[in-house]
Amino acid sequence: VVEEAAGEAREGSVTIRARVVAARARQAARFAHHGFPGNAKIPPRALARFCPLAAPERAMLRAAADRLHLSPRAVDRVLRVARTIADLAASDRIDAVHVAEALQYRAGEARAGSVA
Amino acid sequence: VTDTPPLESAGPREREAWVLIGALPGLSLRRKLALARRRGPIAAAAIRPEEVTELAGPDAAVKVETYRRAVTASRLLEDAARAGGHVITLADPTYPALLRAIADPPPALYVRGSIPAADAVAVVGTRRASVEGEEVAHALAGGLAAAGVCVVSGLARGIDGAAHRGALDADGATVGVLACGLDRPYPADHRDLIERIAERGAIVTEHPVGMPPLAHHFPIRNRIISGLARATVVVEAPLSSGAMITADLALEQGRDVFAVPGSPLNPRSRGPHRLLREGAHVTEGAPDILRALGLETATAGTDAGASAALLALLREPLHPDEVVLRAGGRDPSTVLAALTALELQGLVRRVAGGRYLRSAR
User: pLDDT digits over B4-39, tens only?
Assistant: First the structure.
């Protein structure tokens, strides 16, 4: 009912399925020789390699971590999610918008902390 | 462009030759570099006494011979390793590219820690800084470091020390350039600071282990500070000071110079004010430098239309999903990114239940 409000920007489930399949294919290709199944399982030491950020995006994430009191592990999770968002957008590069969207999906700690 | 020696493959013999050339007394650095460029480093390191006499007089030849009998490259390298460091020569691809580009790069750098690959900015100023000056240097360096910029300085008391600490306190990288060997932490009361810098960045010098901090080392050391950096910022400095020498060297090297204005009643403002008159960039904080160098932090979702729409919506607390639904058909990714941007700017905040609300003004 409410969903109708989102209007013309909505994708049909068929297109979404195609995007997800394509994103999974990108991940499978990326990790072919590394023994982990997908972005969620990238170990911390491999993040710099598989989720590289350019200097401005790195600075943005660092500022966000500072401001939102993210733990190092939370920052790692944001990186993995940003990698996935970039994959869904068929982008090799993780852009600032991908990082920013990933920050929206961050886990509970900051929510609890910012209760006014 | 000028006297820069050609890049060579980093064979161990070339490395050793550069180490010897760097420490060889009696001939000026420019002369040594010119020789090495013409003949290659190995032949230049083995220059005959008659030639030295011809170039720089018999005294110089005696110095060269005494040095050759006393010192070997492997000994210099071992001493560096014993002092916890390593050596980067002009033969190594890891030699900092910006420093390689200056007219008189050190043939060998003795390094503790590792020189960050990030863009670097030098922050320098007087040893006798005011409290405000140290505060400005600390904040400036912190802002640069938080944006991923490596802060280079000269490890001195006052502005230099505040700049290094500012970078460290922001969890950033910093490089300190010594005017003596790696084994001599100078000034002595910066021993702890030097250790922290070596852990999180690098301590760098062109002098072999054992070299004391002689007065004439300081002005030539400053070319390394400016040479490692894309730009040099002078915070507080009297007209005749090491920091002003660094700024002049930066200009010679074709690098940008920034200056922080101060009170005309403060004699330490004279240096920066001279630079400003000569065209240095006015600097109130790190953003001025980041903007001028094109190193600004990425911002996402700063689409003005989306931001205004979200701010209007968030007069009442809304969950991100509701924000997306009510954002007038904008792409969900754009909306969520814009929401993060507003949050980072402090214009909206998360409240109970993960909902967002516009911040009270």
Answer: 444 444 689 999 999 999 999 999 999 999 999 999
Report the residue of chain B nearest A11, measured CA to CA: B331
Q: What separation in angstroms does the CA of A82 have from each of A71, A91, B103, B315, B337?
A: 16, 11, 44, 29, 11
Calpha distance B130→B59 (Å, rounded): 46
Phi then psi dihedrals of residue B358, to 5 deg: -65, 135
Complex ipTM more than 0.95, yes or no: no
Predicted TM-score of the model (pTM): 0.68
Range from B60-69, B79-88, B351-360 carrying the lowest mean pLDDT: B351-360
Residues of chain B with Cβ-Cβ distance to A57 below 8 Å are 298
Res A7 pLDDT > 70: no
DSSP class of residue A47 equals: H
Annotate chain B with three-state secondary structure.
CCCCCCCCCCCHHHHHHHHHHHHCCCCCHHHHHHHHHHHCHHHHHCCCHHHHHHHHCHHHHHHHHHHHHHCCHHHHHHHHHHCCCEEEECCCCCCCHHHHCCCCCCCEEEEEECCCCCCEEEEECCCCCCHHHHHHHHHHHHHHHHCCCEEEECCCCCHHHHHHHHHHHCCCCEEEECCCCCCCCCCHHHHHHHHHHHHHCEEEECCCCCCCCCCCHHHHHHHHHHHHCCEEEECCCCCCCHHHHHHHHHHHCCCEEEECCCCCCCHHHHHHHHHHHCCCEECCCHHHHHHHCCCCCCCCCCCHHHHHHHHHHCCCCECHHHHHHHCCCCCHHHHHHHHHHHHHCCCEEECHHHCEEECCC
Q: Which of B171, B299, B333 is opposite residue A60, by nearest beta carbon?
A: B299
DSSP state of A11: P
- A82 or A55, which is more confident: A82
The CA R_g of chain A, rounded to the nearest whole Å, is: 16
Note the pLDDT of residue B298. 67
Q: Would you call B213 an interface residue with chain A, using a CB distance cutoff of 8 Å? A: no
Average pLDDT over residues B261-274: 96
Q: What is the pLDDT of residue B301?
A: 53
Exposed, middle or buried by CB within 10 Å (0-12, 13-18, 19+), for B181?
buried
Could you give the dihedral angle defined by the CA atoms of residues B325, B330, B334 and B335, in that order, rounded to the nearest 10 degrees? Answer: -30
Of B118, B171, B297, the CB nearest to A60: B297
